[in-house]
Automatic annotation (TrEMBL), chains A, B:
Domain Transcription regulator PadR N-terminal: 7-80
Lineage of the species this protein comes from: Bacteria, Bacillati, Actinomycetota, Actinomycetes, Kitasatosporales
Source organism of this protein record: Streptomyces thermocarboxydovorans
UniProt-annotated stretches for the region Disordered: 178-201
PANTHER family tied to this protein: TRANSCRIPTIONAL REGULATOR YQJI, TRANSCRIPTIONAL REGULATORY PROTEIN
Domain Transcription regulator PadR C-terminal: 93-174
Gene3D superfamilies on file: 6.10.140.190, Winged helix-like DNA-binding domain superfamily/Winged helix DNA-binding domain
A Pfam family this chain is assigned to: Vir_act_alpha_C
Protein's name in the database: PadR family transcriptional regulator
Domain of life of the source: Bacteria
Skewed-composition ranges (Low complexity): 178-193
Length: 201, 201
DNA sequence: TAAACCATGTAACATGTTACATGATTTT
DNA sequence: AAAATCATGTAACATGTTACATGGTTTA
């Protein structure tokens, strides 16, 4: 139940149309809550039906026409309620760690190359966040209203730093692995399938 | 498309029934890929229909009867393929960061108490992982087959350490916040709803 | 033998993903 | 006026969640 509240937050920051929201989800908000345009349109419909937002009465309703929404008092109240309500942390889901665990059983295959690729992607994301920090939160600018936004951005920066370093560590560990190939102990049925030709980083 | 591969990995480590799998997902595997028993039974049915696993012909099929599965050669091959295939990192989704961002708009409400609670939950999880590390990976035991499994556990330990520290930082930041109350700049419609009575940590 | 628990499962729904459809506006 | 792009939307499906149903086994 987070997408509607992500949309309410975005609309409170600035009333927008579906496509504008989609673009903002590709940037700031999407950094910790992504959504496609189909999800957003679907959710905008529900929020409007529930009386939490309304379409700005600017112009026409036709199909190819832009339609902007703003948050109604009931929507703001719902967002405040949700923000203050306790929530348990959801268990973390990470396909890459799952693959490493699988690699311990069926062999490492070409996974090392993908680890390197992920490392680079995280490093790039880190650079992007740091650029945003330089631009939006220079040392002078330290108003209380910005503190929370900056704190959230710091989480993004710290997380990408974390993963970059962890992947460095993992790659170092791989170099110490014997032949970097099939380490098994299980029921032994099929051949390890492909294994050579790593795709470079 | 990760749940079937999580199940294949678990079954290769040790053939199991649905409930046994559920229990193992509550422990080791579930630490980075959780699943409920309904998901697991549903997926076991699909994997069997696809010829990737089969029920051990031990005994009866009746309703309240235990039914164990093992991985077939095709299943092992599929897991090896999936493990080696490149995958893009999925964008990270974090409701707590979303709530902090919302708090920047509608006010902090009682969110501080929940931050403290999350901090304690992460600290507890960290302690659990460290206990597992002590038990399963003592310094003597350093066989190559264990390296990958240990690496994955380290990720869990490092992540919980990360969040514990980050939440400490966030809470320190909160103490510097003016009245620790409603910081707004937007369309101003509704009252900030509830705000007082934090629920202690 | 009733209650508690073990084990597998069904059903309904919420959320997220992928592919495609359609009208309006801008560019060539 | 054809092509590209903008903007909103439908449809089908995959995955995840919540509530409940059913038969068997153990324990009070």
């Amino acid at each position: 139940m987070s997408l509607p509240h992500a949309i309410l937050t975005a609309l409170l920051e600035k009333p927008s149309s579906g496509l504008e929201l989609t673009r903002r989800f590709d940037r700031s908000i999407g950094y910790f809550w992504s959504a496609t345009h189909q999800q957003i349109y679907r959710e905008l419909g529900k929020l409007e039906a529930d009386g939490l937002i309304r379409a700005l009465p600017a112009e026409q309703p036709a199909r190819g026409q832009k339609k902007s929404y703003e948050v109604l008092p009931a929507g703001r109240a719902e967002l405040a309620r949700w923000t203050a309500a306790p929530q348990d942390p959801k268990p973390h889901r990470d396909p890459l760690l799952l693959r490493l665990r699988a690699a311990a059983v069926v062999g490492t295959g070409g996974i090392e190359a993908d680890l390197r690729r992920h490392r680079e992607l995280h490093a790039r994301q880190l650079a992007e966040y740091q650029e945003i920090e330089r631009r939006d939160f220079p040392p002078e600018r330290n108003a209380p209203e910005d503190r929370l936004r900056h704190l959230v951005l710091r989480a993004g920066i710290d997380l990408e730093t974390f993963w970059t370093r962890w992947l460095d560590h993992a790659l170092a560990e791989f170099e110490q692995l014997p032949g970097a190939e099939s380490a098994d102990a299980g029921s032994a049925d099929a051949p390890p399938a492909e294994s050579r030709h790593a795709e470079g980083a």
